[in-house]
């Protein structure tokens, strides 16, 4: 039986004189799973820490230092980097070193949550130095000294990870920002210690306090209690609703009249007459005299030589506690919060 003649070998790419064509593209099998990407949120409502008097107990709680600065959220996108405040203001131009470091992070897209701080000679955050580096309250000067202490990761490489538990988010964050770094973005490290012991050490070192976080919790906006802050010295924001005149004090300010919120109203919580210097008093007086009104935002009782103002300025007040009738004890003026920082006025329960 005669075998059929063998076909001559075909060129590797077919006929050399024929145009090259790829095979028709196969349609995706609808049963085949595929990894979807989440749109990056333009802005995130932040998870806030609930103030507590003592650290919580239990193995699920992780502890960090409480950083005294401005809360920031860094958005790294293919188009560039944005740095937003808690109130949603774009402060990218104020933190060039942080923005430059964000561009170098080994990921294409990410949202980091953290705090901008300026450290003193002992490595402690100094809020006054931070404000000074920015040109004072409301300043518009780029800070070369500010760094960001990153403590959470909200979005990572195309995926919104807010529903993931904290321990997993931290694991990814530590891959981006390794512990012990000296760059403009540094990791706020978890500290393996009992909460009471860590609080005592933090207070001895002159830090503001500590933060406790539930390792199993998702990233939830607002004050849900899954993050808790415990302060060495109590310090909160109170609305300035007026001042008492004095010819013997800096700026002619005897005492500031302060208010907290209760529901949708302001409640008078006392006054503060210490903590000013000549510069801060002059700044306060200039700002308050532009906000003068006839009627106070809260009932202050009878006040001699009182000037009332619209409650638009928020003062950071350090205090030792509360009296039985709901007034501040051992209070001292610490500074004005920047409006863009969106630091809330203290809420009375």
From TrEMBL:
Listed CDD domains: Adenylation_DNA_ligase_LigD_LigC, OBF_DNA_ligase_LigD
InterPro entries documented for this protein: ATP-dep_DNA_ligase, DNA_ligase_ATP-dep_C, DNA_ligase_ATP-dep_cent, LigD_ligase_dom, NA-bd_OB-fold
An example molecular function term from Gene Ontology annotations: DNA ligase (ATP) activity
EC number: 6.5.1.1
Record-linked PROSITE patterns: DNA_LIGASE_A3 (PS50160)
Gene3D superfamilies given in the database record: 3.30.1490.70, DNA ligase/mRNA capping enzyme, Nucleic acid-binding proteins
Record region (Disordered): 1-38
Keywords: Ligase
Enzyme superclass (EC): ligase
Start and end residues of each ATP-dependent DNA ligase family profile domain: 148-266
Catalytic activity, reaction form: ATP + (deoxyribonucleotide)n-3'-hydroxyl + 5'-phospho-(deoxyribonucleotide)m = (deoxyribonucleotide)n+m + AMP + diphosphate
A Pfam family hit: DNA_ligase_A_M
GO biological process entries: DNA recombination; DNA repair
Family: Belongs to the ATP-dependent DNA ligase family.
Protein name: DNA ligase (ATP)
Biological source species: Rhizobium chutanense
Lineage: Bacteria, Pseudomonadati, Pseudomonadota, Alphaproteobacteria, Hyphomicrobiales
């Amino acid at each position: 039986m005669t075998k059929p003649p063998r076909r001559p070998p075909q060129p590797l790419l077919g006929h050399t004189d024929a145009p090259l064509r790829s095979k028709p593209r196969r349609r995706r099998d609808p049963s085949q799973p595929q990894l979807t990407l989440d749109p990056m949120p333009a802005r995130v409502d932040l998870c806030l820490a609930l103030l507590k008097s003592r650290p919580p107990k239990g193995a699920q709680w992780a502890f960090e230092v409480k950083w005294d600065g401005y809360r920031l959220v860094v958005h790294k996108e293919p188009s560039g980097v944005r740095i937003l405040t808690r109130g949603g203001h774009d402060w990218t131009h104020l933190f060039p070193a942080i923005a430059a470091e964000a561009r170098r992070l080994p990921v294409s897209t990410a949202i980091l949550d953290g705090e901008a701080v300026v450290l003193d000679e002992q490595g402690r955050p100094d809020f006054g130095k931070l404000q000074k580096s920015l040109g004072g309250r409301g300043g518009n000067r780029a800070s070369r000294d500010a760094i960001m202490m990153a403590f959470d990761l909200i979005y990572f490489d195309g995926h919104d990870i807010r529903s993931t538990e904290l321990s997993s988010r931290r694991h990814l964050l530590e891959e981006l920002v390794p512990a012990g770094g000296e760059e403009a973005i540094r990791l706020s490290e978890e500290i393996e210690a009992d909460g009471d012991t860590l609080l005592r050490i933090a207070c001895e070192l002159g830090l503001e306090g500590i933060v406790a976080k539930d390792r199993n919790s998702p990233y939830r906006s607002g004050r849900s209690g899954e993050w808790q802050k415990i302060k060495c010295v109590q310090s909160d924001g109170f609305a300035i609703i007026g001042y008492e005149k004095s010819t013997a004090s800096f700026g002619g300010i005897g005492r500031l009249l302060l208010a907290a919120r209760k529901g949708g109203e302001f409640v008078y919580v006392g006054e503060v007459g210490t903590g000013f210097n000549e510069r801060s008093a002059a700044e306060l007086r200039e700002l308050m005299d532009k906000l003068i009104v006839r009627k106070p935002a809260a009932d202050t009782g009878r006040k001699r030589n009182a000037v009332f103002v619209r409650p638009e300025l928020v003062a950071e007040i350090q205090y030792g506690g509360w009296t039985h009738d709901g007034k501040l004890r051992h209070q001292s003026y610490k500074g004005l919060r920047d409006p863009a920082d969106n630091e809330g006025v203290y809420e009375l329960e």
